[in-house]
Design a protein that fits this description.
With 280 residues, the protein is of the alpha/beta class. It is built from 10 helices and 11 strands. It has helices at 36-41, 46-60, 89-99, 109-114, 116-124, 144-162, 178-186, 206-214, 242-255, 263-269; strands at 6-7, 23-24, 65-70, 75-83, 104-108, 128-133, 168-169, 190-191, 222-226, 259-261, 271-275. Strands 4, 5, 6, 9 and 10 form a 5-stranded parallel sheet that branches. It binds zinc ion.
């Protein structure tokens, strides 16, 4: 049975804007409620949001998701979501190999099933493998028991394919409630979100995506990029050369004296930075 079939219409934030046609099975679907705190947040200015987040993080770090590292020397984490993808991932792996750079890939297990050779290549070339989901459903739209089962099964499947432990999960769209956070933690996964991103789910030039990704990038940050593309059915596929934008981003990172690497490495070199990250 395909657990990822029925579509709902969603507009959201982060990598979510890509996926206006999120897909969930009717039997486990319920209406995504917008929490009061999210409604209040949407009324704040950018600066107000930043101040509120800093204040919340001071108290809520025990339930925080990893969004970077402190004291990580000059390292930044490169992360790629939604793959593996046969049109982008092989060229991306070629690029990373040429530059001797390792990255963290947050994978969808339904795509790993389709392209096991790409997963094998990532592992063989020393990249870190992490979980994005069994498909690109919003965790907050799946009922408690179903999500717990699906996450555990996806983690087990990915570990079987990789032949090692999977430590991290990144919820699709960054959608997370307190309940889904605890389900992830109870499944043996730590939640990783992101800092800067290239908005590479939007059609643009490679130069523009690279400039966005590099704009606020600092040591200890986790940069969000996409080798996969979760486009809703009927929406045009992305045509800009994302691998070219990754190349420009790598150039910019090295030019800034930063060192691109995996999530594990930045939090082991330094200390994980956590933020209270809850969004519908
Ligand atoms: Zn995603």
């Amino acid at each position: 049975m395909n657990r990822c079939r029925t579509r709902v219409n969603d507009k959201s934030v982060g990598d979510a804007t890509v996926d206006t046609g999120n897909v969930v099975e009717k039997s486990v679907q319920f209406r995504t409620r917008v929490p009061l705190v999210w409604k209040l947040r949407s009324r704040l200015s950018q600066n107000g949001r930043r101040r509120a987040r800093r204040l919340a993080d001071r108290f809520l770090w025990p339930i925080g998701s990893i969004n970077g590292a402190v004291n990580s020397s000059n390292a930044v984490a490169l992360t790629f979501d939604d793959g593996p993808d046969p049109s982008v991932t092989p060229r991306l792996l070629d690029l990373l190999g040429r530059r001797s750079v390792r990255a963290t890939f947050f994978l969808l297990t339904n795509k790993v099933t389709l392209y096991p050779g790409l997963l094998r290549r990532m592992v063989d070339e020393g990249h870190e493998i992490a979980l994005h989901g069994d498909c690109h459903d919003r965790f907050t739209s799946v009922q408690f028991c179903a999500l717990s089962l699906r996450l555990r099964r996806a983690k087990r499947d990915l570990e079987g394919a990789v032949g090692g432990k999977i430590r991290f999960v990144r919820p699709p769209f960054g959608a997370q409630s307190l309940t889904t956070y605890f389900i992830a933690r109870a499944s043996g996964l730590d939640v990783v979100v992101w800092g800067p991103h290239a908005e590479d789910w939007v059609s643009q030039s490679p130069e523009s995506a690279a400039a966005r990704g590099l704009r606020d990038l600092q040591a200890g940050d986790i940069l969000l990029l996409h080798d996969g593309s979760e486009r809703p059915a009927g929406e045009p596929v992305l045509t800009f050369d994302r691998v070219r934008s990754f190349e420009l981003i790598l150039d910019g990172i090295l030019h800034a004296g930063l060192r691109p690497t995996t999530v594990s490495e930045i939090i082991e070199t330094g200390k994980a930075r956590r933020t209270a990250w809850f969004r519908p």
